[in-house]
Design goal:
Blueprint: H1 3-9, H2 14-33, E1 37-40, E2 51-54, H3 56-72, H4 80-83, H5 85-109, H6 125-131, E3 138-139, E4 142-143, H7 144-170, H8 175-193, H9 202-205, H10 211-224, H11 227-234, H12 241-270, E5 275-276, E6 279-280, E7 283-284, E8 288-289, H13 300-313, H14 325-349, H15 351-359
Antiparallel strand pairs: 1-2, 3-4, 5-6, 7-8
Length: about 375
């Protein structure tokens, strides 16, 4: 594929704009009207709390059903996304730039002094645009940060499903493609099944909404996490039985660590006296969980994330580094984020954090890092 052809494919079209607009419109309407558990967010510095309607799983399943019906009636094409992958990438990127510029301008004009909307302006335009200046900006009553995370996770699944449809139509469906699709679908469905856990993550409770988060949610997650599927669409990989078993074990262990660690932290935040692995939880200073997975490594959830990312790439074999872009990138990102987390926690918890570090010396992988 020559450079000129690639550049031509990157040019947005009205079709790609329409797909993106319809997707966002559906999510806004479905998120507002479909039933779901209303979950209180973390208590903000001013004592206020935001509330989130966790109906992402229902919204996702309903949209899958609507698209399936539309395809059967020839109203929509299941390969519409995979046929326009590059132009959708550009369209979504341009939308991310535009919406974050609007967020910056609106934030600068805001006079709200509440924790969720109070502007944090450094005076450095690039810094403020990149990291954002408001914690939880809203549009028509919709919490944009929560909305964009949901859109990115769903977008990842629908890109994968469109690639799968293209593979079936081309007659190139392989065992590798099935494994990749299965692992990703299980991970994404699990995310939405436990969507309320997202409300207690660092991104939601502490990071302001700027280009970094919007681009990460809308562009990076769906378009880079699906690289393996695009690669398998044009590359055939034959896996042996041992490779399949190893791949499945990597996914299962990664899922067990990732979901188990996040669930333990969420449960303890709701009920500090809840048992962990059948024993009373050890909480340092009444704030830092040091039991279960969190007694093994201080950022054990990152280990689960890394194993899951690796399991998404292993179906592609080892003939090319391209399908391993996601786990390599994630390793770099999580080590960088872990360093930021360590600095923040040391400043926030002080001697409590020092005690926790002595009790749990390993950062992510025991006896290695």
């Amino acid at each position: 594929m020559d450079l000129g052809h690639v550049l031509h494919l990157l040019i947005p079209s009205w079709n790609s704009v329409a797909i993106l607009a319809l997707f966002f419109a559906y999510l806004a309407i479905a998120g507002s009207i479909l039933p779901g558990k209303v979950v209180p967010g973390a208590t903000l510095p001013d004592g206020s709390r935001l509330y989130y309607r966790c109906n992402g799983l229902l919204s996702l399943l309903l949209l899958v059903g609507l698209l399936g019906f539309g395809a059967k009636m020839d109203f929509v094409s299941l390969t519409a996304i995979s046929d326009r992958g590059f132009e959708l990438l550009t369209t979504t990127f341009l939308f991310s730039v535009l919406v974050t510029l609007v967020l910056y301008a609106a934030g600068c004009k805001s006079s709200n002094r509440g924790s969720s909307l109070k502007p944090h302006v450094t005076g450095n335009l690039l810094h403020d645009w990149w990291f954002g200046i408001q914690l939880n900006p809203q549009f028509m009553g919709i919490d944009l940060k929560f909305f964009f995370v949901r859109a990115g996770m769903m977008g990842w699944l629908f890109i994968n499903l469109s690639v799968l449809s293209g593979s079936i139509q081309d007659g190139t469906l392989s065992q590798s493609m099935i494994l990749f699709q299965l692992f990703c679908a299980l991970y994404i469905l699990d995310y939405f099944f436990h969507e309320e856990y997202m409300t207690s993550t660092w991104d939601i409770i502490a990071e302001r909404l700027g280009f970094m988060l919007v681009f990460g949610d809308l562009v990076w997650i769906p378009f880079t996490f699906s690289i393996q599927g695009w690669w398998l669409l044009s590359n055939k990989v034959e896996l042996g039985t041992a490779a399949v078993v190893a791949n499945c074990l990597t996914f299962l262990i990664g899922y067990m660590v990732f979901r188990g660690a996040n669930k333990q932290k969420h449960v303890i935040k709701k009920n500090p006296k809840a048992p962990i692995w059948g024993r009373p939880a050890r909480v340092i200073g009444g704030k830092l969980l040091a039991s279960g997975y969190w007694g093994i490594a201080r950022h054990c959830n990152y280990l689960g994330d890394l194993l899951l990312a690796l399991s998404f790439s292993l179906p592609c074999g080892i003939s090319s580094p391209v399908p391993y872009f996601y786990p390599i990138y994630l390793l770099i990102l999580l080590v960088w984020r872990e360093r930021r987390d360590e600095a923040r926690c040391a400043e926030k918890y002080k001697e409590i954090w020092a005690e926790y570090r002595k009790l749990v010396p390993w950062r992510i992988l025991p006896y290695v890092y």
